[in-house]
Amino acid sequence: MSELSTVLRAWRDRTRPEEVGLPAVPGRRAPGLRREELATLASISVDYIVRLEQGRARHPSAQTVAALARALRLNDEEVDHLYRVAGLASPNGRLVPHHIGPGVRRMVDRLDDVPLAVFTAAWDIVHHNGLWAAISGDPALRQGVDRNVVWRHFTDDFTGVGYDDRHHEEFGEDLVADLRAAHARYPDDPYLTTLVTRLRARSADFDARWGRATMSVHKASRKVMTTPVGPIAVDCDVLTAPGSDLRIVVYTTVPGSEDEQRLELLRVVGTQTLV
User: Fold this and answer.
1) To the nearest 5 percent, what fractions of the chain are helix, strand and coil?
2) Each residue of 33-47: pLDDT tens digit?
3) N or C: which terminal CB in the chain sees fewer CB atoms within 10 Å?
4) What is the pLDDT of residue 274?
5) DSSP 8-state symbol, 274
6) Does this model's pTM top 0.90?
7) In the chain, where do the E strands start and end?
8) Contact call for residues 214 and 176 (beta carbons, < 8 A)
9) Is 222:163 a contact under the CB 8 Å cutoff?
């Protein structure tokens, strides 16, 4: 049995369902995750999990390894080891981090009563809760570059999100500044380099802003979300997770407002479409 299959099985066995947001079921024969549960958390087929653990699949992609690391809530040292035994270069310090550490994961799990998502330094979404999917659209329905906030802002303009001209201008400047800072920190990341190249070719607005080399920091903002229960005005705050270069985006409503009531209704409705 390979080291890859050994560590995957060991880490799956030690991960309790309640640690990853799954209900604890009495009478389980083993305290750890079932293969089906890990497959769901990592968006990988059960068959592929079986092949990895049996040593029949030895070279998973970097995307697969990153998904397994997030699902198993590995620490930095374990992430390093998982990449190496999978025959991949460790992303630590060279590539934009996608891994959500245990501390950040516990924090976002406790904020499940507000729309929340976690993004990389390049603004790719790596985690979201159900309320975020309900108010912003389900990120699971998007693939590849369409899961990137900067790409969507400059090519798709976020249908269903309303804000005034000043916020639109500031948000664009902030996103370009963030991408420039990430590109400086991770110059060897091929995905990030390609993203910048594609954006400059696709969007004249992005290209002009990139050429100005403006640096800025994100500010709190207000936007109006179009949802199945009606428009909801939310305050948007961007938090940075220390040591991980991840961004946690949180939407909140004014206490006692009609927006708060609609958000509570949306929590019940979820991603259903009201007729």
Assistant:
1) 50, 10, 40
2) 989 999 998 889 999
3) C
4) 46
5) P
6) no
7) 116-119, 125-128, 161-162, 221-225, 232-241, 246-252
8) yes
9) yes
List the structure tokens of 130: 């159900």
Fold (CATH) for 102-269:
Beta-Lactamase (3.30.450)
Q: In angstroms, rounded to a whole number, what is the distance separating the alpha carbons of residues 212 and 207?
A: 9
Report the alpha-carbon distance of residue 125 to residue 131 in Å, rounded: 15
Lowest average pLDDT, out of 65-69, 234-238, 239-243, goes to: 239-243
CATH numeric code, 3-85: 1.10.260.40
Residue 62 clears pLDDT 50, i.e. is over it? yes
Dihedrals φ, ψ of 187, to 5°?
A: -65, -20
> Phi-psi category of 271—alpha, beta or left, where left has phi over 0 and alpha has psi -120 to 50?
alpha
Among 53-57, 97-101, 197-201, name the most confident range: 197-201
Q: Go through 135-173 and write b for each residue having 16 or more CB atoms within 10 A of its CB, e for each that does not.
A: bbbebeeeeebebbbbbbbbbeebeebebeeeebebbbb
pLDDT of residue 198: 96
According to CATH, where is 3.30.450.180 located in the chain?
102-269
Mean pLDDT, residues 84-106:
81
Q: Cα 6 from chain centroid?
A: 27
Kindly report the number of other CB atoms within 10 A of residue 125's CB atom: 19
